[in-house]
Recover the amino acids of this structure.
């Protein structure tokens, strides 16, 4: 059986083709999906999405969203997503440092919420950029 | 044209020509280096001149041959620019259309999933922060304008709309704050410090806009978020509209707030089952087919958590759509404004050429008269 993965963001389609296996960071921890998975719907956290194509692993930085798995079709709706190959590691590292500085300066409930979200996004991008594809 | 009137006109023109040629030559002799500058000034003065001249008829053009030539050249240049801008805008409208189309798979799937989950969750009592309806004390208005001018009344209309909305809110005794998106709106509100503006954003900063709106609402700083943008109806029609962004209504129903009517008459609430069509001259509304989920579908988390993940996505796509529509309207407005400007330039050039030819004719007639008169005097 083949497994189809479709990663959608409001702007564009990030991924739409056949895969062997994926590892998805959901709100209740990471799950691996192989063909013939039971149909589930899950919220997706800000984190890495790992895709296996034959023997190659690819990494996508996924900024939260929603996933629906069923009938060997995976649909992931993301706020934003970036392939690890499209991320510049140095730029991501700088963005992370800026985000950390912003969080330490944040005052009030609202700024803390914003800064925390930004920090998590920046951290995910750095992780994705540094992930080795094996 | 009869011969008598043309000869009278020629005489008058010849007299005028003599005086204007005098002044022109003396000026250019005295200040030869300033000529390019004068030319520039003339170009800038053209637009008001255009109105006056058109009101008074073509006879109101009173200047020498050289000035006329310069004016014709400058009108020609302006026409080239406006035509180029029109073409660029047309090409960009196409691109904006493509952006909407490429965002379609996302919104279609999202609507499908939301619809299904709502069906399944209808029986349960779900409480999600983004759908919580609170008594409205403060409203955030997200005003979407353009980044550039030269697009007719596009920016003015939406700013007027925002002003009138602010007036309504203060009449109801409700506080408000603004999030301004777009350079034109930013500079307008920066000049008016008495308007409370929470943040100035650029067009194309979707993540920032979303985070801002999200944080404002969740931290209970504001109790309602309204989106003011220009809805793209067709290439020649665009309406400024007010849209309630938050609280989201999970079932697409109208939320009434404590009997206080904060919603404007043209306020559109979300209807999750319908979705805007792509940007064509006619606006089509497509009802996304909503096939039922397989009944054995399991929720990995609580339904609340799933909705918590889905509704921000929905918010995202709503804001994105508003920005895209606003951009498309701006480009369409620029296209028609530039097309009008080109038409005006063509007309102006035509009437200026007529005046120019007439004066040239008059000058030749005058010279012939002089020669003939001189020959007559000799004999």
């Amino acid at each position: 059986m083949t497994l189809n993965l479709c990663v959608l963001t409001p702007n564009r389609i990030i991924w739409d083709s056949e895969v062997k296996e994926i590892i998805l960071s959901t709100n209740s921890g990471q799950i691996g999906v192989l063909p013939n998975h039971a149909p589930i719907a899950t919220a997706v956290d800000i984190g890495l999405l790992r895709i296996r194509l034959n023997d190659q692993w690819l990494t996508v930085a996924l900024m939260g969203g929603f996933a629906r798995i069923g009938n060997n079709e995976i649909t992931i709706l993301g706020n934003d997503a970036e392939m690890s190959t499209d991320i510049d590691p140095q730029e991501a590292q700088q963005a992370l440092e800026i985000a950390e500085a912003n969080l330490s300066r944040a005052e009030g409930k609202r700024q803390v919420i914003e800064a925390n979200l930004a920090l998590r996004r920046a951290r995910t991008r750095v992780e994705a950029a540094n992930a080795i594809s094996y | 044209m009869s011969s008598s009137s043309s000869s009278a006109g020629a005489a008058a023109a010849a007299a005028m020509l003599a005086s204007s040629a005098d002044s022109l030559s003396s000026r250019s002799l005295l200040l030869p280096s300033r000529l390019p500058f004068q030319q520039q000034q003339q170009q800038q003065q053209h637009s008001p001149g255009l109105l006056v001249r058109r009101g008074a008829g073509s006879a109101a053009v009173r200047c020498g041959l050289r000035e006329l030539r310069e004016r014709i050249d400058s009108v020609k240049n302006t026409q080239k620019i406006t035509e180029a801008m029109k073409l660029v805008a047309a090409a960009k409208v196409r691109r904006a259309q493509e952006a909407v189309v490429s965002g379609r798979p996302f919104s279609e799937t999202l609507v499908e999933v939301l619809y299904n989950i709502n069906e399944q969750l209808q029986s349960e009592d779900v409480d999600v922060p983004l759908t919580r309806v609170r008594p409205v004390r403060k409203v955030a208005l997200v005003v979407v304008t353009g980044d550039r001018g030269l697009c007719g009344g596009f920016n003015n209309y939406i700013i007027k709309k925002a002003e009138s909305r602010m007036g309504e809110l203060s009449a109801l005794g409700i506080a408000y704050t603004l999030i301004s998106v777009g350079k034109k709106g930013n500079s307008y509100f920066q000049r008016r410090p008495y308007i409370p503006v929470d943040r100035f954003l650029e067009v194309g900063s979707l993540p920032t806009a979303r985070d801002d709106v999200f944080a404002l609402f969740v931290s209970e700083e504001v109790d309602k978020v309204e989106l003011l943008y220009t809805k793209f109806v067709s290439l020649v029609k665009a309406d400024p509209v007010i849209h309630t962004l938050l609280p989201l209504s999970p079932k697409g129903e109208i939320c009434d707030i404590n009997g206080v009517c904060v919603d404007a008459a043209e306020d559109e609430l979300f209807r999750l089952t319908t979705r805007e069509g792509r940007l064509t001259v006619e606006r089509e509304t497509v009802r996304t087919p909503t096939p039922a989920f397989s009944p054995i579908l399991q929720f990995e988390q609580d339904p609340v958590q799933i909705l918590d993940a889905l509704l921000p996505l929905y918010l995202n796509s709503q804001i994105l759509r508003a920005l895209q529509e606003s951009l498309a309207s701006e480009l369409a407005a620029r296209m028609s404004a530039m097309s009008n400007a080109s038409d005006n330039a063509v007309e102006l050039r035509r009437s200026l050429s007529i005046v120019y030819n007439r004066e040239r004719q008059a000058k030749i007639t005058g010279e012939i008269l002089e020669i003939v008169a001189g020959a007559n005097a000799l004999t």
About this structure: Chain A has a mean pLDDT of 87. Residues 108-130 of chain A form the longest helix (23 residues). The radius of gyration of chain A is 16 Å. Helices of chain A lie at 89-105, 108-130.
